[in-house]
Amino acid sequence: MALTAAATVSLVKEKFPQAVLETVEFRDEQTIVLQPEFLTGVCAYLQKNLRYNFLSTITAVDWPERVPRFDVVYQLLSLPNRCELRLKVRVGEKGEEHPSVPSVCAIWPGANWYEREVYDLFGITFAGHPDLRRILMPPDWTTHPLRKDYPLTGFDLPEPHWGGQVPYTLDPGVGDQTLRTPDGRELNEGRSSLNPNQEPGTPRRE
Amino acid sequence: MQKQEIATQYTLEESQPLEDGQHMDTMTINMGPQHPSTHGVLRLILTINGETVLKAVPDIGFLHTGIEKTAEAKSYHQALVLTDRMDYLAPLNNNLGYSLAVEKLLGIEDEISEKIKYVRVALAELQRIASHLVWLGTHALDLGAMSVFLYCFREREMILDIFEEISGVRMMTSYICPGGLQADLTPDFEKKVRAFTKIFPARLREYHDLLTNNQLWIERTKGVGVLSAEDAIAYGVSGPTLRGSNVVWDIRKAFPYSGYEKFDFDIPVGSNGDVYDRYLVRMLEMQESLKIVNQAMDGMPAGPYRVANPKVAPPPKWQITGSMEALIHHFKLFTEGYRPPKGEVFVRTEAPKGELGFYIVSDGSAKPYRMHVRAPSFANLEALPLMVEGGLLSDVVAAIGSIDIVLGEVDR
């Protein structure tokens, strides 16, 4: 009898009653929301005992108005049992710049690059990661682009690749970027406030 | 925002002491980002001793275009166009994965007609053949077999002509869209596909004649870049690269989508997990894809090419001129788009490179709150150091070719 995702959810609930915050079923997909401190324990149990041997991806979702601010999402797959499961932890207290999640690299070695990607694009650090550095953005980048308070069009800084040192000592801030709301969002704020006559790559003039 | 220390990137020792007190002279060299056999802009930092690779560190991100960020500012239908640009050798497979995810989010999977499913399967498999042809041509070119490249592109051109026939575009078609297809099939579609499926078996034999038993090819690929099944699974490797390591796993069989359960095909697997096995798996996969295309063309039912749900797909032109309701739906769709309910889905499909997953979070608005793409090449590339460390420098080229990466998808 092959294990199903729904059976997994009840097994995890039974085995780790204090770890499970919530379970969600949407469109036949099972999600378990966990306490961050129990993450590695539950993952090791899933990998060893329930044969969730394939980690499809790790990603994050930013909810800037919520506390805790970030969802870190793990998509698991069991090749022998042909079932899939989603794990989620919520981190990021108010004003916390770099929330931390325990790393699962020791359980699935393939998590290495995914955790680096989440660190790079969201600024979430992974405790116990062997080599946590940026992966997609340049190594001297200072901000995390997939956060919702990062403007779609970037900051009003001189373009680094048009010859010229980027003044990284400046605090770019979030400028006049409007936060996204479900009903209507204003985009391209940063771009429209640029002076159209300004030469690209030069400091901003008013 | 605090200023961060500029990360020190790589710590590689210049010289490593051996047990007997001697020193081994190692050299650190860059392979890429401008190197013809890195298939785009991949940079490998190789530590070598003579011809032996001691350490390989892939450096990616040169093609990072922020597709996931851009999608958050587009409506669901507009974001479809971005998916073509990720794996630019297989845009229709990306469209299919994205469309299935959005349809699942909307809850309209049951409304997708049989005809739509059959057309999608036929096109996805044609695209798989086209993608594998580019892989075969460039892989052989990297290893010194020039003529294969020319033959492969000749056949790929026929497939691109079929796409042009139905969509008007050769590569970035966006033909498969949430709610069905962009347009109906043209009368010449079947003729062109039949012409292709008729000549392709002979052409496939031609490639086999050129390479499969070629002594030079075997010596360059057999026993090179070995990846064990345990490592492949642990690193999340998928697709033909996983199957080359003797793991029978195909999403089309394990979680059938878009009606794949109705088609009869086999999953070719390798035995040793070396470059030659991955080569053979893809060659046999082209044959299986051809089988599926033939079955899809034979069993293609008649029917509408879009769902009849006016909240998702625009009503036909003749209705717009006659009905106020239709006009309003048309206007709402093209000014605002559709609003899926709050929730999240993760849909995995079998793309030519491996497991392509779309994770879409909806907050109830007309734009995806978050779209994450599980790109198969990303995970496959992560396992590259396992294949090349300890091998020869020239085998790095063979290993990169054998995992079939597309950097547009790795960096997104």
Question: Which key terms come to mind for this protein?
Answer:
heterodimer; A: 206 residues; alpha/beta; Beta Polymerase, domain 2; 5-stranded mixed β-sheet; two-stranded parallel sheet; elongated; B: 412 residues; alpha+beta; Cytochrome-c3 Hydrogenase, chain B; 3-stranded antiparallel β-sheet; 17 helices; 10 strands; disordered N terminus
Radius of gyration of chain A: 20 Å
Strand order of the largest sheet of chain B: 3-4-5
Helix/sheet category of chain B? alpha+beta
Let me know the CATH homologous superfamily of the largest domain in chain A.
NADH:ubiquinone oxidoreductase Nqo5 subunit
Helix/strand order of chain B, N-terminal first: EEEEEHHHHHEEHHHHHHHHEEEHHHH
* Count of discrete alpha- or pi-helical segments spanning 4 or more residues of chain B: 17
Strand content of chain B: 5-15%
Largest sheet of chain B: 3 strands, antiparallel
Beta-strand percentage of chain A?
Answer: 15-25%
Low confidence ranges of chain A? 161-193
When the domains of chain B are counted, the total is: 2
By oligomeric state, this entry counts as heterodimer
Largest sheet of chain A: 5 strands, mixed
Total number of strands of chain B: 10
Backbone structural class of chain A? alpha/beta
Second rung of CATH, namely the architecture of the largest domain in chain A = 2-Layer Sandwich
Helix content of chain A: 10-25%
